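Subject: for your reference before the review

Hello V.,

The reviewers asked for a structural picture of the protein, and I figured it would be easier to keep everything in one thread rather than splitting it across files. Below is the amino acid sequence we used in the manuscript, unchanged from the supplementary table.
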Amino acid sequence: MAETPCRDARAREARDLRVLDLLCRLVRIKTEHGEPAPGTPYGEGCALALTFVLEECAARGFKIRRVDDKIAWAEVGDHGPLAAFPVHLDVIPATGVWTHDPYAAKIDGGVLYGRGCMDDKIGAATMVELIGELAAEWREAGRELPCRLRIIFGTDEETGMSDMRGYVDAGEEQPALGFVPDAMFPGIRGEKARLHLRLSRSLSAECGVVVDAGTMVNVVPDRAEATVDASHVRPEVLEALLADLPEGLETMVLDEGVRVVANGRAAHGSTPERGVNAARRLVGHLVASGVDVLCEDEGAACVPLSLGRLNDLLCGDLAGEALGIDVPDETFGHTSMNLGRLSLGGGFVVAELDVRFGSGISADEVVTRVATALGEPWEVEVVRAKPLHLVPEDDPCLCALLAAYRRVTGDDAEPEVMAGGTYASYLGALCAFGPKLPGTHSGAHGIDEHVSLENTSMATEVYRVALRNLVELAEGMR
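And here is what came back from the structure prediction:
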């Protein structure tokens, strides 16, 4: 283990306790998106958390500004280039069965459990504490910081980044330096482009099958449910639904038919291979049991819905190869695709895809190829889009961050690119940097999200050194 630059062990321990206290208080604020109201576009939890962090920053001497009700910033320093550190306070819903209450901030065996503890409230807590500490050191020394250090607090990162788009559209200053503490070490210099696609078509009549799977497009569904009406299928199909159930499925006989429930394993939508898609298990079982072509007897005006083809195109393919959108490049590799939502019923079928891709294919080409593969009468809607982001390997800011990581950890690993998306995509000079350490598991976007106190301390120390490296870099830019 390399020697860490923080020489005073007691000072480091006290700092870590302050970070942990702030992190726990943030985790206890439930910031899943809720019902919008005037002044609270994403519900009371997000609004409360935003107010909380701004009050914490104001108490430490930061200047604060609310851009709107979705995003705000806190800043120290009066001169020089802008270094920014965007973090998000919103979290995805805490679905599934957790070992600990996801909003109790329980510490068990040296590990903190809670939704958002890693994604991304640890980023908020460490930046508030460390930048406040750094500014106080410069004030006590009677010196002016050579740059402005700005923490940007967003509340809509998980569902489209409308907050950061609003920040940019409002004409807020683009940073020259900084990082996004919302990924992993040793750093992420590139992020795939992303499309959130909604695919839909109508059915001319009820088909006797109702399907509901998933909650968010960027999460691998861990539960999916279908109800099959006995009056719409042959008896042997009902028998097949109930017999020889594959792993993760359970059934219930109803007066009017059969209910099938599939359980999977949630994962981040950027890495669907790390989860088990419950929608895939469910639709696969329906098709294998003989529930396939729906609404086939409604006349020439109705194009039948083939669940088998839907399964081939959307459920069983994690790279979009069947849709013709897997066009790899040397930097980002293959396309990744997650079926995050699927609903069938009420005369409609709706599927939502999270598609992430490199430079080998454009967003327009993705949409065109998906529409062509599905054919009539499917409609393809772009709900949200995010551009490709790539920072050069020799970028001075990236090099300063890597130097900090290597000094603290002794690890000479190189930065990577990823399918995941962060605020860096809208702030071109920035890359994502930590807080997750290599070889560790956090459960972000899954059950029992957690972070060890030891790893929190290590990440905080890396950030402490990184901030000082950036201040030194800013001195040379004046």
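For the response letter, the relevant points are probably these. The chain has a mean pLDDT of 94. The chain is about 30% helix and 25% strand.

Happy to draft the paragraph if you're swamped.

O.
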